[in-house]
């Protein structure tokens, strides 16, 4: 029998990428192999995102393109999954009746069943409201061998007025700490050296859990400490946190855990107190900067990225000026900048004072220009430093691409397999990546622990910032580093 093939397109955030690994895992377990050609696919899956305004248009555009293929090949099965499904449910098959399966984010485990039923009975839909099986518990087909996403919670209990996430992903549900640990241990045994713990609001992990026989709830700090103990694992990242929930315990767990990478994503959203209030973000600008100062003091060299929305309803020039001011003072390493987009069903979409597109575009440009200059300045501070990178693969122009603990992308020449750790010296800086060279006299250093490596003083490294003998923290303090998803697309989970 000819091979059965699937084509999978993923939109949006890391949570969706994680779900897509599970979709691919389920299809692989059922004997499908991936393809990039819609014309030869028996199953085409769109894993959708609802954060961006034109996500709907994009989906229906894509579905429209598939229609003639489906007419030619009636056995093709078209699946729509993801957040847009939670939001639009039955409307998808009303608008595109040639879609065979509509599967919500909580119903992924049913995917194969739904496909089989579609075969026998026609179009299927499962948009349940509640997660029974965490997607992490499903088989996965991961893009890379050395890194894995691990979901620790789904949903969000906040109500930021711009955000669709609570509407589409529901209230927070945390995964028992034992399940998370068992998964991470299994991954580490299979050679995974870096995990990214995923949750819509990751640092409120555990608030909805109870520990049997105890009144105490496991908290995110406890989770970080436990994962830090997993043998074989070298790096831990997490996303996305809410500034309000960056409690001292989480900061301590980051500072103590030598595997927890020195990068935080700290979403500002706006630098104006008035706008923050309208967004229902619980902090104010000065408080935000205080927290940031405390984090930088506790974790020297930590790299900080953020999310900022431009043109929230009612944003005046003065409000926007406040955002620029905080951006200047915070000196973020990277910022993911978004033009405000009204999401139907959210409170902000009903607010008066929607800002005209031209004004938003002009402010957006100013913000990007300021942040690019700051990003470059932060990157320039890295030149001359010694850094450990984890090789991710081959990037543009055939150069190796790796990432520092602080999530900075480093390009260098040579042949190194994905998953290898290399010690490099930074030789040049750009706003979004660094150029590196293999540090003289330094071996790939696999196997050695961070502490051991840090205490080895490679010759030829003298005078290089990020001195030998210094601990990772000290090294990081002179050579700050950052998290995995250095992607600058405007799609990401709400935080
Ligand atoms: N418009 C623009 N940006 C948004 N984000 C979330 N919802 C919206 C919206 N309606 C941004 C926030 C969030 C990031 C993932 O996406 O900055 O942190
Ligand atoms: Fe929750 Fe983040 Fe959305 Fe706020 S922005 S509602 S914290 S997912």
Protein model, in words:
Helix 12 (317-330) links the parallel strand 13 (303-310) and strand 14. Helices cover 33% and strands 19% of the residues. With 495 residues, it is an alpha/beta fold. It folds into 3 domains: 4-126, Rossmann fold (3-Layer(aba) Sandwich); 135-378, tm_1862 like domain (pyruvate-formate lyase- activating enzyme); 386-478, OB fold (Dihydrolipoamide Acetyltransferase, E2P). The termini are far apart. The chain has a 6-stranded parallel sheet, with helices on both faces. A 5-stranded mixed beta barrel has the order 15-16-17-19-18. It has a 3-stranded parallel sheet with strand order 7-10-11, sandwiched between helices. The radius of gyration is 23 Å and the shape is globular. It has helices at 14-29, 55-72, 83-88, 90-95, 111-121, 165-169, 177-189, 220-228, 248-256, 273-279, 285-298, 317-330, 357-380, 450-455, 472-478; strands at residues 4-10, 32-34, 43-48, 77-82, 101-103, 124-126, 147-151, 153-154, 173-174, 194-198, 235-239, 263-265, 303-310, 334-339, 386-394, 400-404, 409-412, 421-429, 434-438. 5'-deoxyadenosine binds next to strand 13.
């Amino acid at each position: 029998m000819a091979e059965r093939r699937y084509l999978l397109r993923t939109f949006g955030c890391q949570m969706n990428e994680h779900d897509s690994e599970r979709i691919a895992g389920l299809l692989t377990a059922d004997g499908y192999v991936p393809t990039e050609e819609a014309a030869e696919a028996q199953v085409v899956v769109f894993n959708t995102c609802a954060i961006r305004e034109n996500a709907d248009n994009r989906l229906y555009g894509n579905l429209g393109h598939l229609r003639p293929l489906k007419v030619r090949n009636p056995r093709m099965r078209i699946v729509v999954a993801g957040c847009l499904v939670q939001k639009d449910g039955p409307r998808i098959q009303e608008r595109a009746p040639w879609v065979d399966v509509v599967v919500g984010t909580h119903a992924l485990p049913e995917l194969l069943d739904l496909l089989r039923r579609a075969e026998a009975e026609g179009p299927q839909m499962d948009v349940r409201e509640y997660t029974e099986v965490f997607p992490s518990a499903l088989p996965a087909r991961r893009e890379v061998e050395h890194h894995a996403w691990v979901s620790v919670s789904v949903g969000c209990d906040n109500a930021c007025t711009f955000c669709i996430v609570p509407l589409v992903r529901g209230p927070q549900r945390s995964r028992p700490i034992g399940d998370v640990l068992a998964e991470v241990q299994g991954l580490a045994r299979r050679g995974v050296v870096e995990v990214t713990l995923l949750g819509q609001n990751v640092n409120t992990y555990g608030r909805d859990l109870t520990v049997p026989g105890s009144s105490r709830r496991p908290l995110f700090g406890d989770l970080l400490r436990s994962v830090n103990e997993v043998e074989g694992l070298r790096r831990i990242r997490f996303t996305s946190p809410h500034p309000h929930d960056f409690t001292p315990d989480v900061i301590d767990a980051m500072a103590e855990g030598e595997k927890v990478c020195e990068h935080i994503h700290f979403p500002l959203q706006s630098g104006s107190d008035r706008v923050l209030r309208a967004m229902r973000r619980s902090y104010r600008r000065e408080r935000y900067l205080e927290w940031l100062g405390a984090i930088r003091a506790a974790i020297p060299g930590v790299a900080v990225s953020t999310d900022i929305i431009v043109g929230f309803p009612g944003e005046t020039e003065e409000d926007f000026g406040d955002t620029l001011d905080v951006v200047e003072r915070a000196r973020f390493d990277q910022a993911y900048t978004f033009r405000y987009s009204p999401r139907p069903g959210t409170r902000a979409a009903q607010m008066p004072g929607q800002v005209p597109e031209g004004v938003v575009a002009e402010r957006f440009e100013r913000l990007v220009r300021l942040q690019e200059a700051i990003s470059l300045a932060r990157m320039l501070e890295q030149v001359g430093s010694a850094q450990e990178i984890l090789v991710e693969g081959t990037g543009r122009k055939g150069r190796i691409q790796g990432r520092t603990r602080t999530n900075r992308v480093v390009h260098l020449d040579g042949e190194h397999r994905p998953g290898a750790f290399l010690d490099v010296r930074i030789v040049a800086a750009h706003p979004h990546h660094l150029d590196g060279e293999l540090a003289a006299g330094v071996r790939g250093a696999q196997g050695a622990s961070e502490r051991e490596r840090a205490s080895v003083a490679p010759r030829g490294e003298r005078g290089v910032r990020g001195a030998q003998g210094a601990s990772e923290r000290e090294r990081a303090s002179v050579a700050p580093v950052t998290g995995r998803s250095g992607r600058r697309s405007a799609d990401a989970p709400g935080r």
